[in-house]
Design a protein that fits this description.
The protein is built from twelve helices and 14 strands. With 389 residues, it is of the alpha/beta class. It is globular and about 60 Å long. The chain starts with a helix and ends with a helix.
Length: 389
């Protein structure tokens, strides 16, 4: 694999499972190009299963072949910058064909452009409603992309849906595809983390508000529970000096104190991550060790170690011995935007918030350091996991 691909995805080569998926998608793409029925290939899998690695290998094959009119789109600003860097490192790749979806759709519709293949990473971030503020006036970006291409290859993870304007589930996906041909390509293997299946299941059970248990100790994946965010930060700084790419992340809900909207807990006080037009994405900027990462800077990125601060919108219920999710305390109101075409229940909003925590916890390849803002939740997790002060 290309060195830049290795640096982005922390892998040395494609696995046999990934190679098989690529072979099968290649067969489907060729069939779709011949039929020209606006077909869709859906790569589906949870966080860390190697979906983006597979997509980028397909991108490398087709977007460097002059026979095809192609594009790669991603609606995540930090990931967009990373893919531009990747594109520049791949011989014969036209970096200008890597676009944000709104920009590509508006340009293609205005100039009557058509494509053979459009690749979409993090397709669960496509708008499924009009978003005039972001200059998108259509009704569904996947519909528009399908109309522009003979084949659309999309990566979906429905457990990474966090906002109403980007709401997707399987029902909406199939409704959007309609009568067009499609095929699902499932990826069920965990590649990002060296964690065991039981350890990954523990993270899933935590965010699903199931009864709490101690973290399984059955792999080389390093888990530590901290009583203070300050102690967690010191450990993350140490890991960052030792192996690099180690960062503190948090979920929303921290109150403003004296006009500051920092993440503040015990001795810890750092600002949230900041959008920056510089080309280097947040995860790889040295200065980001003194900021707190969010889903908006880290979705789709890998770290070596992640220090996770579970924010105030998560509490503890002693009767069920489980973590609870409190949407009223979630301060990032973007997820609660109203839609004309559907209403969201409290449970669905809880799912959005749970998804944020789940994805952030799984950013670290080698370890997860954890603490919680809520005293009762933190105490129970400490009790179960004999954490550090």
């Amino acid at each position: 694999m290309n060195k830049i691909l290795k640096a982005q995805f922390f892998v040395d080569d494609l696995s046999e499972d990934q190679k098989n998926v690529i072979t099968n998608i290649n067969d489907y793409i060729k069939q779709g190009l011949d039929q020209n029925l606006h077909s869709v290939a859906v790569i589906q899998g949870a966080a860390g299963t190697g979906k983006s690695v597979v997509l980028m290998e397909l991108v490398r094959q087709y977007m460097t072949d002059q026979r095809y009119k192609t594009a790669l789109v991603v609606n995540h600003p930090e990931l967009y910058k990373a893919y531009q860097d990747l594109g520049e490192s791949i011989p014969n790749m036209n970096v200008k064909s890597i676009r944000r979806p709104t920009a590509l759709i508006n340009d293609a519709q205005k100039n009557h452009k058509k494509y053979d293949i459009i690749f979409v990473d993090e397709a669960h971030l496509l708008y499924s409603k009009s978003e005039p503020y972001a200059h998108y006036r259509g009704e569904n970006q996947l519909t528009d992309l399908m109309n522009l291409a003979k084949v659309v290859v999309v990566v979906y993870d429905f457990a990474q849906v966090f906002q109403s304007k980007m709401y997707w589930d399987q029902e909406l996906l199939f409704k959007t595809i309609g009568n067009h041909p499609y095929k699902m390509f499932d990826m069920n293997f965990q590649y990002r983390m060296v964690a065991s299946d039981k350890q990954v299941a523990w993270m899933d059970d935590l965010t699903a508000q199931k009864p709490l248990t101690s973290f399984p100790n059955n792999s080389d994946f390093e888990f530590k529970m901290f009583n203070t965010a300050g102690g967690l930060f010191e450990e993350i700084k140490s890991k960052n000096k030792e192996v690099g790419m180690s960062r503190v992340v948090a979920t929303s809900g921290f109150p403003r104190i004296d006009g500051r909207h920092n993440v503040e807990m015990d001795t810890f006080s750092l600002p949230w991550d900041e959008w920056d037009p510089q080309r280097t994405h947040w995860a790889k900027r040295e200065g980001s060790i003194t900021q707190v990462g969010t889903i908006y800077t880290l979705q789709g990125f890998d770290l070596n170690y992640v220090g996770m601060i579970i924010g105030p919108s998560f509490g503890y219920d002693p009767e069920t011995d489980s973590m609870t999710i409190i949407p009223e305390k979630y301060s990032h109101k973007e997820i609660f935007k109203k839609r004309k075409d559907r209403q969201f229940s409290k449970k669905e909003y809880q799912d959005f918030i749970a998804n944020v925590l789940n994805v952030l916890m799984k950013r670290g390849k080698y370890g997860l350091y954890l603490t919680a803002y809520d005293d009762d939740l933190r105490a129970r997790l400490m009790e179960l996991n004999q954490g550090e002060s």
